DNA sequence: AATGAATGAGGTTTCATTCAT
DNA sequence: TATGAATGAAACCTCATTCAT
């Protein structure tokens, strides 16, 4: 039941927004009553925090696995991360959008747990760029922190427009984006 | 007064969110009463629509000016757009965040006016890429629609993290991003 | 309207208790809506605090006037206070019961304002007893603090049983109690 | 278990009030679940009634024993009752406060059982005063019903302020109060 | 141009109670 | 004897909106 509530809430928060979705909306969508909601969650914010934690922990896990694979070059790791983020849209896209858009509705206490994790994800990419600079895969004069923000922009923004059921696959987009990031667009 | 209400609302919507900001919050912040608000706006949504329209029209104007400058190459136009978006963060960052985050709270009628304009901005970039492909500035095999999304990701995401009062200037970031987009990061 | 809400609330809190009286009960009893209540009070607790302050300030004023009357002996002042408390039951009895029973429902902040005033009322009686001991009206060996509690017990408890519309008047009860306090009951 | 629930409930009702204490509060405080509560009590009101009955029956028993002791004079009986009420504060103070404050939350049916017992306790004191008047211990012109209320005021009010662990003992307070009631405070 | 009083719908949350196990 | 899941009514409170002045 808790799982069911969480799943439905992610869909609703994605579609209508956190504040715009009432507990009534949530429980109606799964045919239970408000009491049931409060049996499993002590507040609406706790549910939001659950969703945040679950998402960022999952992303960090995925990232960790990729970065720990010593058989991959820095470029390959970068591609793997881009590909992971794109392919996750299908299953985790709603969570991701909630994560990026609704962080504001977390309590200060919850934020103090989430923000370091979010930053960690970005810093890991920054570290990957540094690694690539040192092993000669990437240009030595790159501003790693800004480039990391740029790469995250490319991937995270795709949650706003990419349709996993559309005519172009997540793998294709990942390839286009990785090539753009690595080689640029000029001739 | 209308201007004052709009300005303050943009700040508040940016900080707390549209649904989380009450009319009371708005009028309190400028020391008037709710009646005053409803003298100038017929609803909260009308105010939101005002903010949206003002932002996207301004962006389209800026873009239009850049794209119409025949003295610029495609690359230069691209740089100019990136630079325009970054430098706008200081004055328009709050509006931009409201634009991207709160579109959901517009009525269907308002959306039908806003969405085509938002799409137009992106399609203009797509067209610029096509133009660059044809005049030999950009690689001919680029997938323009996806690349346009990628470029918008880089710039739009910067509204989430770029601090105009920080140690790195908007111009520097624009240069880093344009170089990344044009040349990529590999050696 | 604020006055009306307060008056009705005192009646209802007296009859049913603070927690047992809903905002709905209050507004129904005067034919307005909940919004109206919250236009005048920011919370149910603020209303309770209003009632408390109004009551204790009134009692302290009354007491102050009696104690400041230099034409009265200590005994006469004591009688006047007892009489004042008894005669107040008719108009202030409901407030008094709310005051004694519902203090628990005040916030800590409100309590820190109310408790010193409540204590002041008692300490003023203690001082009156001391005064009577020194001017030879009262026995010199009295334990003033405990006796003050005893006198307040006699008067305050009367709010629980005394019916101002019954067959015995408040003046008669005040006389009986004053005689009991001054002379005791033994032969 | 039933005993444990009752004991904890008395503490909680005393501290926070009946309506302000939830079944959840009660069962949490003893580490069981709500089902357990409803195994022993059919409703929250039944528990409150249990507490009321237990208290008043106990008081009536104590009073009965004192009044039936033919070796005591009326004055001695009066002192014994005052002393009994004061000394009971330590063990029964919480019950007493619940008894006096929360009677309102009993059903009409429960009230019809409790009120006569409460009145009986007072009428027994009234009878004791009459007895003292007739045997020449108390003044013949006393208004017994009102004096009984006065005596109960002195003792019952002490539940509001007397601290059994403070510097003055219950026996000392009982002596001060009995002397005040018998001899008054004037010289 | 602006106010202040009032509304009413809907929000989150609490809680006594039920019941299958 | 005790649990845990679920209910549904009602609690306090918020807020966009209206309207007479």
UniProtKB/TrEMBL annotation, chains A, B, C, D:
The keyword Repressor applies. Gene3D superfamilies: Homeodomain-like, Tetracycline Repressor, domain 2. Residues 1-59 form the HTH tetR-type domain. It comes from the Bacteria. Keywords: DNA-binding, Repressor. Residues 22-41 bind DNA. The keyword Zinc does not apply. InterPro entries: DNA-bd_HTH_TetR-type_CS, Homeodomain-like_sf, HTH-type_Tx_Regulator, HTH_TetR, KstR2_TetR_C, Tet_transcr_reg_TetR-rel_C_sf. Pfam families: TetR_C_24, TetR_N. This is TetR family transcriptional regulator. It comes from Cytobacillus oceanisediminis.
């Amino acid at each position: 039941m808790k799982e069911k509530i969480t799943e439905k809430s992610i869909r609703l928060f994605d579609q209508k927004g956190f504040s715009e979705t009432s507990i009534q909306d949530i429980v109606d969508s799964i045919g239970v009553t408000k009491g049931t909601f409060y049996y499993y969650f002590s507040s609406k914010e706790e549910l939001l925090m659950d969703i945040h934690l679950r998402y960022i922990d999952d992303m960090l896990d995925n990232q960790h696995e990729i970065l720990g694979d010593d058989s991959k070059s820095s470029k390959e790791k970068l591609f793997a991360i881009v590909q992971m983020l794109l392919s996750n849209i299908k299953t985790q896209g709603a969570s991701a959008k909630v994560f990026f858009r609704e962080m504001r509705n977390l309590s200060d206490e919850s934020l103090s747990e989430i923000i370091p994790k979010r930053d960690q994800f970005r810093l890991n990419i920054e570290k990957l760029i540094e690694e690539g600079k040192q092993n000669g895969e990437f240009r030595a004069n790159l501003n790693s922190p800004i480039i990391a923000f740029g790469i995250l922009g490319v991937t995270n923004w795709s949650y706003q427009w990419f349709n996993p059921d559309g005519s172009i696959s997540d793998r294709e987009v990942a390839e286009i984006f990785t090539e753009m990031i690595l080689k640029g667009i000029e001739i």
